[in-house]
Design a protein that fits this description.
globular; 5-stranded mixed sheet; 9 helices; 13 strands; alpha/beta
Length: about 300
């Protein structure tokens, strides 16, 4: 019998689960609406029911979970999720392990998305990699020499919170004028009164205002990436999240801005790529975390 693990991506609006073999084959998946309010206890109840649904024969050998915000993997807690009520120092890994009897590991959702893209997606051929997730907010993750860089307290990689304009809009993080305030879906709605998907459809239809918007958007994103390239000199930057569906419209100005602002040595060979796993990257990466956990236990 082939062993498999469960990967879970906990979000504020949806919870995604999948059961994966060691080669990345997804045997079964499930997407559920997140409970409202999305308290830790309510999420735990949903997870336990969902795990029973996708693993009715109890075959899985480990569980990986991605949660919004910093996660302390050694301490097995979700430290804080600024957009989810009550998510402060939640011992989610311990809770799941106690209820399921399966070894459980926890990670930041953007870190999981990067692991997923590095395992089965756009980042497979790179050892030094940045992922930027463009959605309701802007998340990020960093891989250096083939390993996730999580930094002190597991809080590294909040790439959307870097300063962009010191006089810009306030951010939930406490920063002012962060990159998130210019490149997130929330920022797009505030600026245009339109949804990103609507602007993407208009651009596909050749609408000049939408095309101009995406060009200006790409310029902002490119300026933000300039800072990250100078600090981390990655081989590739993978752009994920819902807004990445319009990658073709903002990529040219992203590329032009990076090339204009970053000296050649710091960007030599740099590739800027759209993510390949879409909304399932976090679930896939959480499964990879689970496989890593299981392998450690088997050594």
């Amino acid at each position: 019998m082939t062993n498999d693990v469960i990967g879970i991506d906990v979000g504020g609006t949806a919870i995604k689960l999948g059961r994966f073999t060691a080669d990345g084959t997804c045997l079964q998946s499930l997407t559920l609406t997140a409970p409202q309010p999305t308290t830790p206890e309510a999420v735990l109840a949903v997870l336990l029911d969902a795990i029973a649904q996708i693993d009715p024969d109890n075959q899985s050998v480990a569980i990986g979970v991605g949660t919004p915000g910093p996660a302390d993997a050694p301490a097995r807690i979700a430290k804080i999720a600024i957009n989810l009520p009550g998510w402060i120092d939640v011992p989610l890994a311990d809770w799941l392990e106690a209820k399921t009897g399966k070894p459980t590991v926890i990670g930041n959702d953007a870190n999981c998305a990067l692991l997923g893209e590095a395992w089965l997606g756009a980042g497979r051929q790179f050892q030094n990699l940045i992922l930027l997730t463009l959605g309701t907010g802007v998340g990020g993750a960093v891989m250096l020499n083939g390993k996730l860089f999580v930094g002190h307290q597991g809080a590294a990689g909040e790439l959307g919170l870097i300063s962009f304009n010191p006089e810009g809009p306030m951010c939930n993080s406490g920063n002012q004028g962060s990159l998130e305030q210019y490149t997130s879906a929330t920022a797009i709605r505030r600026r245009t009164l339109k949804e990103p998907i609507e602007l993407g459809i208009l651009a596909q239809q050749g609408d000049s205002e939408a095309l101009t918007f995406w060009q200006e958007y790409g310029k902002c994103l490119g300026i933000g990436l300039t800072t990250l390239v100078y600090v981390l000199t990655p081989q590739a930057i993978v752009i994920g999240g819902g807004i990445s569906g319009s990658f073709e419209f903002f990529y040219p100005t992203v590329k032009a801005e990076v090339e204009k602002r970053v000296q050649p040595l710091s960007r030599e060979g740099l590739q800027i790529l759209p993510a390949q796993l879409g909304k399932f990257a976090g679930m896939v990466g959480a499964a990879k975390l689970a496989w890593q956990k299981y392998s450690e236990l088997m050594e």
